[in-house]
């Protein structure tokens, strides 16, 4: 059974054009070809990247953040409460008003205490600026190194300047050392991102990020096995170009260098739109959609590879929409947060100096209880705790 599935999976007609077999891609005549077995090395490299990231964030990114004045956020911890914790983890992080009364009765707490518990519990899960800075620092360093390495590996290659050369002599194109390391390191890095996605800062496009990482790994793995390596290196280089600017803009945003952040974000938006919505579809997808038909008839691998590229293009369009929304708000002075950020993550910081467990007994400056009727013009409890902190 297993042998049958194995033979079917590696059937030549699925992976290779007609009249070609795996025997044609065996090393001979001084040519070395990429093999699926080479990809096994990405597994230990993936965990190596996770270890390097941990050490980098601890010994380099954290001291750098501290030099910019970025500190761990001090927050109040929600008291242990099994009933509320169970609801929080299994049903909703932000319970509707209809559930608050029931939770209040079950937990023997007032409605306001339940609301406060959920605010503090969400605050515990909310990533601080230091965590975001460390994460962006690691990605910035990798993308910068990958982009520079990609340019060094490709700038002398014919297919870097003429995409017709991508398919010249295909599939009998010998694997170069630079291509090998470019692929292995990129795949290992995206593998590490897939492993760490549950612990990284969660944003609105969490599902799209998962799809992106899976599509990227599938695309790179497939292109490696069928020797689509030349076009694969071009795809990686186009993606790394804008990612460097995005992560650098985030770093300066967390450091509150607003002018530098805004400049880098504008540059990122320009590079993203040019590389992802112009070069990627009209040069690279055109190269994989049209030029191969000049050399061989379409086969399953041809359709599959192009389908994966279209999936990436759809994600690019989605992110371009968010970027344009941010630019519009930036131009009209209404940009206050990242469009990709989760609403819970970006909710206003809870006050640590005016709200405590005895909020029901909290007194205003003249000694009157907050929960008294607002007959003397004082704020009601709901108004008091929901108003902006700047007016307190």
UniProtKB/TrEMBL annotation:
It catalyses: sphinganine + octadecanoyl-CoA = N-(octadecanoyl)-sphinganine + CoA + H(+). Keywords: DNA-binding, Endoplasmic reticulum, Homeobox, Lipid biosynthesis, Lipid metabolism, Membrane, Nucleus, Transferase, Transmembrane, Transmembrane helix. The chain crosses the membrane at residues 37-56, 140-160, 180-199, 264-291, 303-324. Pathway: Lipid metabolism; sphingolipid metabolism; Sphingolipid metabolism. It is found in: Endoplasmic reticulum membrane; Nucleus. Residues 131-332 form the TLC domain. It is a multi-pass membrane protein. One of its GO terms (molecular function) is sphingosine N-acyltransferase activity. This is Ceramide synthase 3a. It comes from Anabas testudineus. The lineage of its organism: Eukaryota, Metazoa, Chordata, Craniata, Vertebrata.
